[in-house]
Amino acid sequence: MAFTNFRLETDADGIALVTWDMAGRSMNVFDARTIEELSAIVERTTADAAVKGVVITSAKDAFSGGADLTMLETFGVVVADVMKREGAEAASRKLLDEVSRLSRLFRRIETCGKPWVAAINGLALGGAFELSLSCHQRIAADNPKTRLGLPEIKVGLFPGAGGTQRLVRMLPPADALMMMLKGELLNVAKARAAKLVDAVVPPGELIAAAKDWIRSGGKAVAPWDVEGFKLPAGPVYSKAGMQMFPAANAIYRRETYDNYPAARAIMQCVYEGLQLPMDQALRVEARYFAHVVRTPEAAAMIRSLFLSMQDLNKGARRPKNVPPTRVRKVGIIGAGFMGASIGYVTARAGIDVVLIDRDQQSADKGKAHSDALISGEIKKGRAREGAREALLSRITATPDFTALKDCDLIVEAVFEDRKVKAETYAKAQPMLAASAIFASNTSTLPITSLATEFKDQGRFIGIHFFSPVDKMMLVEIILGKNTGEVALATALDYVRAIGKTPIVVNDSRGFFANRCVLNFVAEGHLMFGEGVPPAMIENVARMAGMPVGPLSLTDEIAIDLALRIVKATESDLGAAAIDAGQKALLIEMVETRGRLGRKNGKGFYDYPEKGKKKLWPGLAGLQANKLDPDTLDVEEMKQRFLVVQAVEAARTVEDGVIVDPREADVGSILGFGFAPFTGGTLSYIDMMGTKRFVELCQRLEKKYGPRFAPPRLLLDMAAKGETFYGRFAPAKSAA
After folding, report:
1. What is the location of CATH 3.90.226.10 in the chain?
2. Alpha helices, H only, 257-315
3. Long-range contacts of 71-77 (CB under 8 A, 24+ apart)
4. Under the phi-then-psi rule, with left for phi > 0, alpha for psi from -120 to 50, and beta for the rest, what region is 574?
5. DSSP 3-state of 624
């Protein structure tokens, strides 16, 4: 057959070089055609007596990003067709056959009788790393950008092409489980130290080194296929195994609360597979994989964290009629923690930064924050020594607003106060170039109202970063009523340039993310007022799937900021817009007790200089009522935490703040950690079914109040049996 994704060349020594190079794609991936072609190459090279061995590499900067998960949609169509024609049993067999194709191909490489070498020239993730593990030798080019690993858990799947079985035969099970359950990626040095890579060579010597290994008599047998092979940590039913597996199971439960079918399947595959020969172990893995791909959790996570995120990163919401923009210089007004962090991620992306504050000392302090961050990356081996000087050279710290004159984009990150922001705009506007875009990093104040202080409102937009900026991947772009398309396109191009994922929302108080997450925080405060034990509030929130409890999150946000938001909301919208009990609690914490959160070492938690944070013992004295935890309905508490956020997300759709369900789902997971296994706030509703969700809202409303009341949109959707992804079908992505 003719190959469109690979080139196959055999040299005079009989060594075949397979070069993976998918046309029209920046990254090689496994799709149906790729699997078919690679299978044909394996059979051709195996049957050809002149071929002594095979080297597989990539012509692109990366080896491969793994499987194209859109294949699973195709599987679904095929299986549904078989179900209709032949019934459930035949459909299950067909699904198992489809999902195990890659696993069978890799096992064929491993047992074909000829040595295969993976010449890894860059990123090798998921199925690509599983391909490498099935080769008899792995040689990597010395490339600081290379990452190797099995990140499938992050999209609700697990390594289903032999990864769970080969990794635990190469590493102690505890290390292999940690790597798969966390989706941990290794650089070349760590992979070599773990013996997952056999050699590291300069990039220019990669292919020669791979061929030399074959010429020198490299064996075409995997260690686990050799008689007498011993597992790295001994059998499952050994002293070491009995010490490891019960502890691993406890850790799994503690970290996942059994919310993730893929994580459970990894545990099962490893435990069962290590007791079997490789071929039987691979069949066990394939059966678990066939089960997991049919779970609603996997479907939701794949859609939100792979397909939708990919679309948004490619510019799904970018105006098509605006030419590409390039932001060369960014002015940041406000060199506090947020502004300095925005400056850091901007300079790290190779963009020049002007960092402005009230005086030189404050501006210099902001620049020093970038120094500390890049120094930390160098210390951890994530950046090279020269990166510090290069990054800091891009940042100019100054109190002089005239330095903004040649900036393409200005980001205001001053105190969350209308008066302070208005004063800042008055100083900045005379200095700006006519084409400059001006953005506010406000977290709650409506962009349209802030823009009234700006002369050209068409160039005014919201760019809301999440803290800590260097770690959080989401950026919320807010359109005011008068924001123009050039401003939107520029903001999206900038966010893409700094490697973040954007969502575009229309204006409202709190926009999307804060409207939802502040409801989560408030629900924790209200539970506290009801008399629920603080530890139970925190633990049940994590059981529901949130990364931290609402009291811990309040400390991270800062309790005084939470109080300011409540007071500003009351001032603008009236007393009915807030909960008096929540306001009283925050006043007690901030104004009476001086407990501001993590920033001053005391909030709902105490933060000792050494050791872990602990809930403040004095909390009990602030509760007028104290409920018996044994009388509380844990499942209902979990529902309260998720429903109060999801129903607010539905209101943002009704209000026109969210116009694309992908942005609500991706934004809720990346922005505030909404239970990833649900696929996000709107997928949570769709997964449950709109009718059931409305019924749940109404039960909670009756018991706890109007904050749970379903909006008219949800009532209408429930009556019609609609879903968000059905009624508001996302627009096709712009490439």
Report:
1. 6-294
2. 261-273, 278-292, 296-302, 309-313
3. 71/30, 71/31, 71/32, 72/293, 72/302, 74/32, 75/99, 75/293
4. left
5. coil
Strand ranges in 40-168 using DSSP code E only, listed in sequence order: 53-58, 116-120, 124-125, 137-141, 148-149
Phi-psi map region of 558: left, alpha, beta (phi>0 left; psi -120 to 50 alpha) = left
Active site annotation includes 89: no
Q: In the CATH scheme, what architecture does the domain 6-294 have?
A: Alpha-Beta Complex (3.90)
Chain position carrying tokens 């035969």 = 169
- pTM score of the predicted model: 0.92
Q: In whole angstroms, what is the distance from residue 325 CA to residue 310 CA?
A: 20
Q: Is 130 a catalytic residue?
A: yes
For domain 329-509, give the fold. Rossmann fold (3.40.50)
Per DSSP bridges, beta strands 329-333 and 409-412 are: parallel
Q: Is 631 helix (H, G, I), strand (E, B) or coil?
A: helix
Residues whose CB is less than 8 angstroms from the CB of residue 43 and which lie 6 or more positions away in sequence, other chains included: none
Distance CA 478, CA 9 (A): 53
The CATH-assigned architecture of domain 514-727 is: Orthogonal Bundle (1.10)
Where are the CATH 3.40.50.720 domain residues in the chain?
Answer: 329-509
Residues 635, 486: contact at Cβ < 8 Å?
no
User: Quick one: residue 525, left, alpha or beta (phi over 0 = left, psi -120 to 50 = alpha)?
Assistant: alpha
Instruction: Identify the residue whose tokens are 């190079």.
Output: 21
Token duo for residue 286: 């394939």
Angle at which helix 278-292 crosses helix 88-99, to 10 degrees, equals 120
Helix, strand, coil % in the chain, rounded to nearest 5: 55, 10, 35
pLDDT means per 10 residues, the chain with 735 residues, are 94 97 94 96 97 98 93 80 89 91 97 98 97 98 94 96 98 96 95 97 97 97 96 92 91 94 97 97 97 94 94 94 96 96 98 97 97 93 88 98 97 91 95 96 91 94 94 96 98 97 94 95 97 98 97 94 89 90 96 95 95 96 95 98 98 97 98 97 98 98 97 98 94 50
Buried b (16+ CB within 10 A) or exposed e, 334-360: bbeebbbbbbbbbbbbebbbbbbbeee
Q: Which of 98, 110, 152, 412 is catalytic?
A: 152
Of 98, 130, 412, 476, catalytic: 130
C-beta neighbour count of 205 within 10 angstroms:
13
For residue 400, give Cα distances in angstroms to 157, 331, 411, 419, 468.
Answer: 52, 11, 15, 20, 27
CATH 1.10.1040.50-classified regions of the chain = 514-727
Interhelix angle 71-86/88-99, nearest 10 degrees: 150
476 and 513 in contact (C-beta within 8 Å)? yes
Any idea of the CA torsion for 337, 340, 344, 347, to the nearest 10 degrees? 170
